[in-house]
Amino acid sequence: MEDLGKSFPAAEGLVDAEEGQKPKPVNEFCLNCGTKLEDLYCHHCGQKDIPRRRTLGELIENFIGSFYSFESKFFRTVKFLLLKPGFLPVEYTAGKRESYYHPARAYVFISFVFFLLFFSLPDKDEEENKPMAKKDQAEFNRGMDEMRKGLYKSGLDSAMVDSIYKASVRDSTDVDLVYSLGDKKPTVKKKQNPNSINFADIEYKSFAAYDSAQNALPEAERDGWFVRMFSRRAIELTELYKDDDSGKRFSEDFMKAFSSQFSTVLFYLLPVFALLFKLLYVRRDFYYSEHLVFAIFYYNFFYLAASVYMLMSFVPWVGSILNFVIVLWMIAYLPIAMKRMYNQSWRKTIVKFILFGFIFMFCLAIGMGISAMTILFNL
Predict the structure, then answer these.
(1) Interval 253-291: pLDDT, tens
(2) Domain residue limits at 169
(3) Mapped to the 3 state alphabet, what secondary structure does the chain carry?
(4) N- or C-end of the chain: fewer Cβ atoms within 10 A?
(5) Is residue 211 one of the residues assigned to a domain?
(6) How confident is the model at residue 15 (pLDDT cuts 50, 70, 90)?
(7) Residue 149 lies in a domain
(8) What is the number of domains present in the chain?
(9) In a domain, 301, yes or no
């Protein structure tokens, strides 16, 4: 029975753990660097004392053990990251690092998950604007027929009723209906997406027309280099999107590129985040690197909470309540983390939180503005 127990390494490990014994050495010298072993890990290179050759069962056991070690460490980190603001940075600066997942590795993984969800989850506006199902279409048609009967009963002639009916049907798709009782017939116009640019409104359609208009002006009234640069780019975009009357295609291309740049801007602002805290707490005994670790942990929380927020957006009414709680927690999280990390009074913490918020949002606006200009000149 003893030999049978030893044939399964997990059973032997359990016995050793219960009896408080150290694992028995496998090799006298480290297989990696040749140093004489004094413990389970080589004190010279850090390699674990493992058999030179491993059976399939031992390989599978080692894989499961490694995965469990990662899983327990990762989820422990996530738990503290979400529920205890500032706890992990304090632990890290105190040197307690092996029990938690490394903040830089967590940043790579969590930010990857966030942007994967950000670009993969369907847009709720697109979901709302997708074609109606057959059942909904039939119900819509019945409602339109009822409206038509009501118009006939109001005393309008059949030509007027037909015009209003046709315009109302089109109104459900891509047109607006302008109608008043004083009109002889309704006026129909195309809908304009409020989030789009109408290239038909661009004043000059060619470089020649723009240059001609500029040359006709006195030199003091001509556009400066900055306005001239943007005017010429507007003419180029007009030519590029000349078939895009509503501006929808341009808006989609721009927002797609802008969204992809958001992660880059936040990443470049990470050292700025840490620098602001270094300036705000210049009298406190913290290295810049420790402020940077604090910033990374907050970024990890932000991406993680935002990922949960996006997922909850697709859950019925419970999701809306949870998202409201998530937003409140995202606002309150940073000052609580600052209080725990830097151990100052609540009054000083709130003042510094507000000051930091204004400055960081200003930096973010500058970063996004530069990103938007870069996209405009590279579409």
Answers:
(1) 777 777 777 888 888 999 999 999 999 999 988 999 999
(2) 132-190
(3) CHHHHHCCHHHHHHHHHHHCCCCCCCCCECCCCCCECCCCECCCCCCECCCCCCCHHHHHHHHHHHHHHHHHHHHHHHHHHHHCCCHHHHHHHCCCCCCCCCHHHHHHHHHHHHHHHHHHCCCHHHHHHCCCCHHHHHHHHHHHHHHHHHHHHCCCCHHHHHHHHHHHHHHCCCEEEECCCCCCCCEEEECCCCCCCCHHHCCCCCHHHHHHHHHCCCHHHCCCHHHHHHHHHHHHHHHHCCCCCCCHHHHHHHHHHHHHHHHHHHHHHHHHHHHHHHHHCCCCCCCHHHHHHHHHHHHHHHHHHHHHHHHHCCCCHHHHHHHHHHHHHHHHHHHHHHHHHHCCCHHHHHHHHHHHHHHHHHHHHHHHHHHHHHHHCCC
(4) N
(5) yes
(6) very low
(7) yes
(8) 3
(9) no
